[in-house]
């Protein structure tokens, strides 16, 4: 079943008892620096520290009783795993997460803290998928893909719905793109509710598979996606790609330097902790040339999960 | 003229066109850790990154035309100087700031960025006061004290007013205390509007002059105030002390470790950049024993101005 707009409205009601309606903040000094009227939708202040809780919660609460009772499973070392674990706990069902052995300690702890059962595997795609399949076979749990899942995409679309409710007549909305869950959900919501608003994305130059995929008309994998924006290293999915093809106006490549600069601007000037992936849309505004000059632009700050002991800032003086 | 409650209402209307009405945020995981229902009033998200803009703006816009035209002056290397500079710019009048030569580069830049004229002096109290006097004599500018000024205290009282409007029936409000501007303004507002709400403060153990002053019944200076909470190293003032004596229920001393732990909790779990001084109230909740257990507690996050290149976090593992 393809994700569709009316289901985003249902997702909004379904997840409302669990997730925050996050604030939309503005910052005059960033408006000056970036040359546009910026409206930041703060999903870094969301439960679990990222928008991912929306899709995961929607998927978990769409399951039938019997299916749900056997639990949910996923492979992810990032925000989706923590989000799925939290959503499963809300529904009081088991959650199984497959993680590479070498995942950062801080991520293991987060997922454990939300009550998931972790199975570690070798850090290869094959090991990850085989391990997940074995768990699903043994437990009967339902696999909830991090983004290539209609209920997940519809859940992520609720971010843009809230943004539109709070800030009317936006000229553009800019989001980060990794697997495309947030971008396709946003595109579905915006095109239905505010068709004159452009849907734009930022993507790390070093993981520019979405840009290349759109150019070539088929899903390409990222090549050595060595970017500080660790949430954006995945390729598009079979559900997200066609929506992005159809409804997204443009994706801008951003350099590592631009990501870190945007991230620092948000920390210093807005006093918000945002992860590198979450700073990618602001970096995209900078490289978009005059397209957004003086325009009203919604920015989705997608998440705030960083390891405070390993911050990527470098002293400005050097 | 003593600061009084009705003037806080006037201050609220006077500054409303300029300052943010900051959001009140909650965080379930901090509620669990700290054992209370916490409501965080986010003055770190305020203009200039701190509540200080309220008092400064109120003082600047209370001046008569003629007086205002000669400008305002202060000595401060912190948030008040930046706030006064911004407020003066809004009123299009000069602002003169005396700063010690050795003030951090980042603070000099902030104050300059808001358009103030800085005069540097030797890093002694005497040099600072003499330099300020010379400037006031030469320019006719009005000295706006960082906290011992009735219009400043009334301006700071607007934080608690907004908090009470948003969160009814609080059992306590906890703020940091340095010179006592925020604490005395908060106490005036709370005692008038919600007399059953306790007014509490946190103070660094290493700058515990307010606690000692209350005990001895007279204003004592801090002794070697070597604390990471650099906004709280000042002594109480002749206006703030009697209000605190009369209306504040208790001040809790907090260790450096407790401040850094609270600060890290806020960054990690709330995704908010808060300066050490701003984390002091949450640290105070922890040391308050069972006083606040299960209670509804307002926390004023006073500011978010930190140097990202000199963060005081230490790896949790060590």
How would you sum up this structure, described in words?
The structure is a homodimer of 318-residue chains. Chain A is of the alpha/beta class and 318 residues long. Helices cover 45% and strands 15% of the residues of chain A. The first copy, chain A, has two domains: 5-50 and 149-310, Rossmann fold, CATH 3.40.50; 53-143, 3-Layer(aba) Sandwich (Rossmann fold), CATH 3.40.50.1100. Chain A has helices spanning 5-15, 28-34, 52-62, 65-69, 79-91, 105-113, 125-139, 150-166, 181-193, 209-216, 240-247, 256-270, 276-287, and strands at residues 24-25, 37-42, 72-75, 95-100, 117-121, 142-143, 172-176, 198-204, 250-254, 296-301. In chain A, strand 7 (172-176), helix 9 and strand 8 (198-204) form a beta-alpha-beta unit. In chain A, helix 12 (256-270) crosses helix 13. The longest helix of chain A has 17 residues, at 150-166. The first copy, chain A, is globular and about 55 Å long. The model of chain A has no long low-confidence stretch (mean pLDDT 95).
Throw out a few tags for this protein.
Rossmann fold, alpha/beta, homodimer, six-stranded mixed beta sheet, about 325 residues, 2 domains, 13 helices
Task: Give a short synopsis of this structure.
Two copies of one chain form a homodimer. Chain A has 318 residues and is an alpha/beta fold. The first copy, chain A, is built from 13 helices and ten strands.
Biggest sheet of chain A, open or closed, and with what strands and sense?
6 strands, mixed
Round the Cα radius of gyration of chain A to an integer and report it. Answer: 18 Å
Task: Give the averaged pLDDT of chain A, no decimals.
Answer: 95
Binned strand content of chain A:
15-25%
Distance between the termini of chain A: 52 Å
The total count of strands of chain A amounts to 10
Biggest sheet: strand arrangement of chain A: 1-2-10-7-8-9
Oligomer: homodimer
Overall tally of structural domains of chain A = 2
CATH class of the largest domain in chain A: Alpha Beta
N-to-C series of helices and strands of chain A: HEHEHHEHEHEHEHEHEHHEHHE
Give the helix level of chain A as a range of percent.
Answer: 40-55%
